[in-house]
Amino acid sequence: GIENTPSPSPDGTSSGAGKQKINFVLDWVPNTNHTGIYVAKIKGYFSEEGLDVDIIQPGESSADQLVASNTAQFGISYQEGVTFARSSGAPLVSLAAVIQHNTSGFGSFKDKGIVSPMDFEGKKYGGWGSEVEAAMVKQVVRDAGGDPDKVQILTTGTADFLQASETGQIDFAWIFEGWDYINATNKGVELNYIDLGKLSDVFDYYTPVIVTNEDNINNNPELVQKFMRAAEKGYRFAIENPDEAAECLLQLAPELDRELVIKSQQFLASKYQDDAPYWGMQKKEVWERYMNWLYENKFIDAPIDVEKAFTNDFLQTAK
Amino acid sequence: MRTKIKIENLSKTFKAKKKSLEVLKNLNIELYENQFVSLIGPSGCGKSTILRILAGLEKDFSGDITVNGESIKASSFQFGYMPQKDLLMPWRTVYKNIILPLEINGTQDRKLEVENLIKEFGLQGFENFYPGEISGGMKQRAGILRTFLMDSDIMLLDEPFGALDAITRIKMQEWLLKVLIEHKKTVLFITHDIEEAVFLSDRVYVLSDRPAHVIKTLDIGFPRPRNREMLSSREFLEYKDILLKALL
Amino acid sequence: MRTKIKIENLSKTFKAKKKSLEVLKNLNIELYENQFVSLIGPSGCGKSTILRILAGLEKDFSGDITVNGESIKASSFQFGYMPQKDLLMPWRTVYKNIILPLEINGTQDRKLEVENLIKEFGLQGFENFYPGEISGGMKQRAGILRTFLMDSDIMLLDEPFGALDAITRIKMQEWLLKVLIEHKKTVLFITHDIEEAVFLSDRVYVLSDRPAHVIKTLDIGFPRPRNREMLSSREFLEYKDILLKALL
Amino acid sequence: MKRFRNIGNPLYSSIAVVVFIIIWEIFTRARDIKEYILPAPSAILNEFITSGDLLLHHSMVTITETVLGFILGLVFAILLSLLMSSFKLFRSIFYPFMILSQTVPIIVIAPLITVWFGIGLIPKLIVCVLVVFFPIALNLTEGLSSYDKDLEELLMCMNASKLQIFMKLKLPSALVHFFSGLKIAAAYAVMGAIMSEWTGAESGLGIFLTRSMKSFRTAAMFADIAIISIFSILLFLLISLIEKKFIKWNVKG
Amino acid sequence: MKRFRNIGNPLYSSIAVVVFIIIWEIFTRARDIKEYILPAPSAILNEFITSGDLLLHHSMVTITETVLGFILGLVFAILLSLLMSSFKLFRSIFYPFMILSQTVPIIVIAPLITVWFGIGLIPKLIVCVLVVFFPIALNLTEGLSSYDKDLEELLMCMNASKLQIFMKLKLPSALVHFFSGLKIAAAYAVMGAIMSEWTGAESGLGIFLTRSMKSFRTAAMFADIAIISIFSILLFLLISLIEKKFIKWNVKG
Ligand SMILES: Nc1ncnc2c1ncn2[C@@H]1O[C@H](COP(=O)(O)OP(=O)(O)OP(=O)(O)O)[C@@H](O)[C@H]1O
Ligand SMILES: Nc1ncnc2c1ncn2[C@@H]1O[C@H](COP(=O)(O)OP(=O)(O)OP(=O)(O)O)[C@@H](O)[C@H]1O
Ligand SMILES: [Mg+2]
Ligand SMILES: [Mg+2]
């Protein structure tokens, strides 16, 4: 087997016996957002901490319940998910922002000429059907002084941006710069891209984040410490050695498109920490701004206590 | 008299379980128009198989069969065939079972005739019963009625009266003789009742055991219409005796 | 002589399609041990229904029935019942169909006996055929054999010889009479053949048309073992005549 | 036989469901199960009240899809079975594709269906039909070939046409099989409509489902599932009732 | 009757599939269809070669799940049908839950199943069983109640026990129904295993499928689907072959 074999540890520490078994659940298929975790596994950082980490890929639905119920001790989520989870009482806590700024935005084929939110008017937006998503699209149009009602919002379900655009069903969609955009470039398709994080502070939220549950934080802080020490080391490695880090990811997820992973890794290397003083740091304002926007738009019933939603306490512990 | 059915050198072998079973061997039978011909023979000798071949249900045989002068393989002559099993459809009522041939031919305007026949056959009151709710003899009568409604001028009847009591059987025999004359039918009839065979037939073929061939052909000299007095005549007893001897 | 079966005031009404059909009405029948009793009566009068009630297949009747002195509702006496339809399982070979009662009783050590019976019944060579591949009379013989293997001392036979030719029928009658004496069986027998009824029975009940009740009880005085000479005796013809008259 | 052929006594069934719900309620309360792990029936019921209008709105959409999809799937299945049981060549050619159609994960080809057929009703109906037709077609095809060969011969003697043999023999003989297939399809039909919404939809129970899931409203999600289940069971019951009307002769022998 | 009961002539089927693939190849080439819209068969074949080892590895995982799930589902279905056709009360109680089990979208409750049963083989098998058991159980239950009542009476006269009546009459009579159910389940079984991987997995064809899909490797995705289809068809053929062995008496009457 490939994944089932114990991770090779160059430093000689063998995994397996005597190690604490940990489940880490992803938010999606493995991708470059997760590289640090894969590096930590391959390079033996987890082993060094006495952890034996299984990286679990969930189904099509969110895996936050798995972390909230401690079926998995750690996982990947995103700020919106944690906010929703906490607002419905699920004790998720964000431990680190994997990428400092929101690297998603609006992509469209070059010939559509969509370069600012004003150009959204009269165009077809294709999304998966979330109300939050629709509200955000309308918000950016409104912020730019356009008429949000002139945007045609279509739900294309699970259809992919490139496929849907190619067949002319949509004009633009919400994509990840480090994944879909690079994929398009790889396939020789030229895109216009509007960075969401740059449009508005509110939408410059953290996505993705590493999460655990309150129980671990309160009753098992050493475990969290150990895990995050290794994870942080993994992401640092990814920042410094994107190509080798990409290989780590590809080693455990060889099904991915190789070229895409490598290019995406090169792109993300500078985005993980970006302008933050250290990797993973989360700011209260970022949490608060987006939470308030959700509240104002009635997506959550009551404001949540953002102080409890995230913590930086388990970062930089290696120092 | 015109020849209606002519069977020459008919042979039939069933292939089953790698073994083959020779059932008919060089069998010759002839039926003239408006004739009543009976087949008798030991159980399992191949009587039903002959009727099935005539009815076109067994294609794989050797020999020549002509119906109205045409080879049976070429023609699609429609016989009035009544199989040995009653074969009523369990999901149809007795009435619906009986009128099946009318449904198939698209003739719907014989309601009165059917009603009268149902009465004559003693099935009135049971029209809406399902086959599972009537007696064995009643099923058989429904089967005969259905065969009659197939409206062919040749009727192939495979032990049609086997499950009937003496009295009902007499009634049905009378009815059949009436039909023979009134409708100018030609009948090929299988029975185990020698008396019945003699009483009804113009000719009786006695078949041998497997592989079946004709071991005796007996022409019955009684005039038509026939009456039950004949049954106690000396001639009748002689006919019976000849047939019984042939069977042994 | 011990009474084996006693039926007193048996009445039975079928409820179907909101109408109700009175089939049996105050019927009285008695069978002594080792006796051979026949039922004759018009088709559809209720003969099979009587056997079904005895066999425990119709629960809803009124009147008293005792078997070996016990009420039938309380006892679970196992009859050797042969229904009017042959009811062979289409997915079992002839042999497997015949030995079904042995399988069910868990007796597997009568192979030789079964083989001999199969020969006696003229079914040898057909053991591995499926019911769809044998003739009507052969099915019936398989059914009789199966019933015999049920090993009950009371046999309820519903027209067991209806599909058999004269010769085979004689053979089977002889066999049945042999069984009656050798195995001390008690037999309740339905037939449409009056001659057969007289020849085989100690007593014949003639049933009326629906609702059926006994209209004639005739004790047959011939001694056992019986032989075919009796068939041409004057007494025999008289018995036949009495029964025929009763039926009319 | 007055009982429902195979469903059992509806009274006992209802009691069983009610008991199940009560045990579930007690269980979640006694063990203090968090709502996001397993919401209590009372919480789900509450969701019915608070999100009632919304659920109703989405239900209408999904029911329409279900009904249309079921009917289309049924028609398609019948046509297919007819062709397959009438023409051996057609059967040989089509059988593998019939199975293939079931082995392609809908979630995966849903986006491709959208790409090929656009957004709207057509791709949705395609998905519904894909889900519904298979159990019906398979069972009906099997049923259409398990008739009494002797009766067929008899009909042939009566010069019955192929169509008549079909209508008067094969179809009645296939009814039990056919209804088994229909019942399986009925249990899947609403799910099929939900899946069809993956091809892109603005409303429908599937949309409500993903929305409530993604926004962590587990109770709402269960309310949605409850509606799906109720519709499915109603459809199933409807089919069973129709079956009872058709197969009354089965009462005896 | 030497032909496959319902599958038709395997030669023609194979030809049909080959023709279909050739047309597909010509179509994608002639119309210059982009690979991410619809990959050409040649591109998919190529993927078999380049990702062969990987596909093999994932296949082994999924096949194991499929086989285990199918067997478990079969056993469960048989048990359930036995109980349901033996005890009316059990049937009344269990029938609604049997339908309910099919109306809950697995994709949605997959994470909950993981929460309830942990990560590993058990939740996967639960999903497989959920998918597989239903068509079998429903068809078998129907089949077990469509036997010849007269034969049952005859057996009762022979003092046959309930078990004997079951083994010698009801079961043989239910075989055609049972195999219809098995065939439907066979077509779904591999899909069930794929879905089971939604409960959290590290490998399997479902994992390969999503990973290749989400990293836009459409040809690899189709290669994966092709394997799923091939396995499904093989399972289906296996069941059909076993059916032929069992239902040989159907040859006549
Ligand atoms: N299940 C049933 N429902 C309604 N009526 C029935 C049912 N079974 C039998 N009958 C009726 O009972 C009557 C007697 O039937 P039975 O089979 O006992 O007749 P029988 O004397 O054996 O006739 P045969 O000599 O023709 O076999 C018939 O009129 C039949 O229609
Ligand atoms: N499909 C078949 N396969 C193999 N053998 C068959 C088939 N059909 C009939 N036979 C055999 O052919 C022989 C003749 O059968 P047939 O039914 O013609 O007899 P029959 O003369 O009508 O007997 P009966 O008087 O008992 O009805 C039997 O031995 C039977 O086993
Ligand atoms: Mg015959
Ligand atoms: Mg009777």
From TrEMBL, chains B, C:
GO terms for molecular function: ATP binding; ATP hydrolysis activity. It comes from the Bacteria. Pfam families: ABC_tran. Transmembrane segments: none annotated. Keywords: ATP-binding, Nucleotide-binding, Transport. InterPro entries: AAA+_ATPase (IPR003593), ABC_transporter-like_ATP-bd (IPR003439), ABC_transporter-like_CS (IPR017871), ABC_transporter_ATP-bind (IPR050166), P-loop_NTPase (IPR027417). Residues 5-234 form the ABC transporter domain. This is ABC transporter ATP-binding protein. It comes from Acetivibrio mesophilus.
From TrEMBL, chains D, E:
It comes from the Bacteria. GO terms for biological process: transmembrane transport. It is found in: Cell membrane. Its main location: membrane. Keywords: Cell membrane, Membrane, Transmembrane, Transmembrane helix, Transport. Coiled coil: none annotated. Residues 55-243 form the ABC transmembrane type-1 domain. The chain crosses the membrane at residues 7-27, 67-87, 94-115, 121-140, 174-196, 216-242. GO terms for cellular component: plasma membrane. It is a multi-pass membrane protein. Belongs to the binding-protein-dependent transport system permease family. This is ABC transporter permease.
